[in-house]
Each structure stands twice: as C-alpha cells, then as structure tokens.
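Continuing the batch. This is chain 6 of the set; chains 1 through 5 are on the previous pages. Same settings as before, nothing changed between runs. Recording input and output for traceability.
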Amino acid sequence: MSNRVFGDKEIIEASRQFVCVRPDSYESEANQELVRALLRGTMQNTAFCLLSPDGNERLSRSGRSFGDDIGGASGLDRVALQFRSKGDPLDALTPDFHSFRMALNISAADSRVLVLISAPADQIGDAEKRMRSVAWNDDIVGRFHYDFESNAAKFIKPLGLRNTKSDSGIYLVDPDRFGVSGQVVQRLPIDVDNEKLIAAMKTANSQYAKVTERKIYSQHVAEGHRSGYFFEMAMPYGEDRNGDGVPDPDSARKFDSAKSQSLRTGNYYPDNSEL
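Output for chain 6:
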C-alpha cells in the first residue's frame, strides 16, 4: 500500500489514537539504526511499522510503507482498542525538532507555519508544558511545526532579526521555499494566554495558505536540485539496499554530485551551520 494513505481523512482520524513518530533517517546514527531494524538491516528512504507502547513488540509487518495487513483505518481502530490511553491527550509532549535548521527546512517542505518558542534553558521545559494544550487543540493539531530553542544565535540570522536583550517569546514564522530563511509574521510574549495564541496561529496559518503555492513533492525536490541546495546531515545520504552498512555506490554518487553543485552555487549548508 502506498504512503499516500497518510493523506486519507479516515487514516488521519484513526491515527490520533496513536503516538506518531517520524524520525529523520539521516539525523543521527540512533535514528538510522531504528530504520535499519525495521528493514532487515538495510537502509532505505522510508520505513513503517506499528509498535506496542513500550516500543518492543511489532503490531504489524514492518516495511517501506503502510502495510495491507493493517487493514486501513478500521485496522488502526482495532489495534488502538488493545491499548487504551490512560493519560490526557492534551498533556502529550509538544512535537520538537533537534535543531532550528531542521525545523525551518521541514516546515518549508511541508508548507507549514513554524511556531518557534524561545526561552532561557531553565524555562524551556515549562514553556513546552504550556504549549501542549495549544498544539493538541482540535483547531490547531497537525497544522503547524514547533521548535524550542534556548540559544537565539541559532535563529537570529535566518529570521533577519537583531540581537536584543531578551529574545524570549513565541515567533510565528513563514519559511521561505527551501527553508533557508523565514519571516516572522508575529511575535508574542512567552506567557501569552492560550486563547490569544490560538487566534494568532489560526490567522497566520490562513494568511500563509493564501500566498503559498501547494508543493508537489517530486517537483519541489527537482527544483531544489536544480537550484543547488544541499543540507548536510549527521549521517551520509544514500540508501543501503544490501545492508553492508554503507550507502550503495550509485546512491552515494547522486548525493556527491548534488553536494558538488551546491558548493558551486553557494547553497551548501554543513551540519553545524546556523544558516
């Protein structure tokens, strides 16, 4: 079954009974090992599996995509009935990225407004807890990406901001086409009440949707390649279909060529780049 099922309304509704995790294949060695474990030691671009709450038992076959053995939305419902939620869904962790650069890049790829929460390191935990009931609000869930940062140096330059005495706040950011920079459409106090924040987010999302062309994935990727954009990651790009632990030569050559082009065009961003 194709991964296009993830756009099906019934699948989306049924998936809300699950904790859905989308690890990036090249973000870290640990993430890549997770993908390999689901694909019999090989490394390919996508993997999918339903897991038990402790992550140890596979509740479906693992493979490249949503499996036919699951049985669609009704199958998800049947699995969910085996594991009744004991907590409040509104108290689930707010999704977060491992870096601002990745948050901005994926927000651009997914055509989402990025909600950037900036606070001192000793306050970021409380800020995340306050955001939970907002992120999982019925009018908000699934429409935004989030990133929590305690180091303003990571986002000041790509957002075109100036250093100030206090960079704490909640920034609503429209990413550019390839997630290299972004425009702050509104900045709110870190302690803004939920009602005002939700209203601001809904307005930002509506305005962004009006001016942002819907991306067709294959065309977007091709345009990025032609423009010479390349974002280095912690792990080398490329699929490892024979499971020998290194990217297949043909796959590696493709990414090496893209990297060389990005160096010529000036659109190369190393893994430790602050953009």
